[in-house]
Design brief:
This protein is mostly beta strands. The chain contains one helix and ten strands. It has a single domain, classed as C2 domain (Immunoglobulin-like, Sandwich). Keywords: Abscisic acid signaling pathway, Calcium, Cell membrane, GTPase activation, Lipid-binding, Membrane, Metal-binding, Nucleus.
């Protein structure tokens, strides 16, 4: 059995300018897919009806065993009688976030930016993403540009949940 490093809380905050897949709008939801060696974890947000700028503010918690694997988010349009339509996808690398957790951050002032990642061809970021020490926790806000679609972004936030048996790294 694979050992779990901890839990990654992915807060799916909102969608921005998502693609229209119904007559004038869409009924979007987000699916988070994360592979462990033997298991694909799939978690979903609720469906927001008729909204291309939905607010979910939902937490999806993934078990992390291998931090080298990316998390994939797929946005779908919920359809009642046909297969749900894809509305784009984005992947993000959790390695910089995990590396930050290994640092000794005790005594840092609240709001300290630990590291910053810039948008590039190698990532789905639409703007700079900062890993910040906030209220005794490490958090990262990301704005992800959706791929394989004409428009749309997702705003998410990452936070680590340490399991009592793992005591961090």
């Amino acid at each position: 059995m694979e050992s779990i490093l901890g839990l990654l809380r992915v807060r799916v905050k909102r969608g921005i300018n998502l693609a229209v897949r119904d007559v004038r709008s869409s009924d979007p939801y987000v699916s988070a897919n994360f592979m462990t060696k033997h298991l694909l974890q799939k978690l979903k947000t609720r469906v927001v009806k008729k909204d291309v700028n939905p607010h979910w503010n939902e937490d999806l918690t993934l078990s992390v065993a291998d931090p080298n694997l990316p998390v994939k988010l797929i946005v779908y349009d919920h359809d009642l009688f046909t297969k749900d339509d894809k509305m784009g996808e984005a992947e993000f690398d959790i390695r910089p976030f995990i590396e930050t957790l290994k640092m000794n951050l005790a005594g840092l002032p609240n709001g300290t930016v630990i590291t910053r990642t810039q948008p590039s061809r190698q990532n789905c970021l639409s703007e700079d993403s900062c890993i910040v020490y906030s209220d005794g926790k490490v958090v990262q806000d990301l704005f992800l540009r959706l791929k394989n679609v004409e428009c749309g972004e997702l705003e998410i936030q990452l936070q680590w949940i340490t399991l009592p048996s793992t005591r961090g790294f």
